[in-house]
Specification:
By secondary structure, the protein is α/β, with parallel strands linked by helices. It has a single domain, classed as Rossmann fold (3-Layer(aba) Sandwich), CATH 3.40.50. Helices cover about 55% and strands about 15% of the residues. It has 8 helices and 5 strands; from the N terminus they run βαβααβααβααβα. It has a 5-stranded parallel sheet, sandwiched between helices. Helix 1 crosses helix 8 and helix 2 runs antiparallel to helix 3.
Length: about 210
């Protein structure tokens, strides 16, 4: 595959959407064909699965939740991401398998290695060229979310200790794979964060 696969990770309210859009604009200005997508929900099937895992009322067993995310991921990579990468395009994606390790592994207290291996199997072991982790404390992310005036989804509504476990998991993942991760302080000004990201992406583009 000749394309570039860039994923964004971080807690809800970390600023991923803003930075994803800024990066896409920057890449397009340099003549790149950019595919913007997300998990869950990057395909028609993914939209249906997203409604189940994020908006269904009532209990979903943690392992069932992990399997639903993996099903979405498998279909998404096969039908959208791999074809784009094979065409030489740049895929910029909101969340990937690190989200499952953090949210279902640490957040739901499942075995992180089992959760990771499930996603690797589902995607035929496709890994990003770069994963940008926007790191903010759980309390800051929660305060930002409160300003949006919208109903929380199932994961956003979890208690602060859940989101603290998620953040700690993300930081552990980044420490274990420093060559793949770019960790950026999500409390910095938007322009500073963007500059850090495009500096790293420029290196990848050569």
């Amino acid at each position: 595959m000749t394309g570039l696969f860039i994923t964004f990770e971080g807690g809800d309210g970390s600023g991923k959407t803003t930075q994803i859009n800024l990066l896409a604009t920057w890449l397009e200005a340099r003549g790149k064909t950019v595919v913007l997508t997300r998990e869950p929900g990057g395909t028609d099937l993914g939209v249906e699965l997203r409604n189940i895992v994020l908006h269904r009322k009532g209990f979903i067993a943690p392992r069932a939740e992990a399997l639903l995310y993996a099903a979405d991921r498998s279909h998404h990579i096969k039908s959208l991401v791999r074809p784009a990468l094979e065409r030489g395009e740049v895929v910029v994606q909101d969340r990937y398998l690190d989200s499952s390790v953090a949210y279902q592994g640490a957040g739901r207290v499942l075995d992180p290695e089992e959760v990771r291996e499930l996603s690797l199997w589902a995607t035929e072991r496709l890994m990003p060229n770069l994963t940008v982790l926007l790191d903010v404390p759980a309390s800051v992310a929660k305060a930002r979310q409160a300003l949006t005036e919208r109903e929380y989804d199932r994961l956003e509504a979890e208690a602060e200790d859940f989101h603290t476990r998620v953040r700690e998991s993300y930081l552990s993942l980044a420490a274990a794979e420093p060559e793949r991760f770019l960790v950026v302080n999500g409390e910095l000004p938007i322009d500073e964060i963007h500059q850090s990201i495009i500096t790293k992406v420029s290196d990848l583009l050569g």
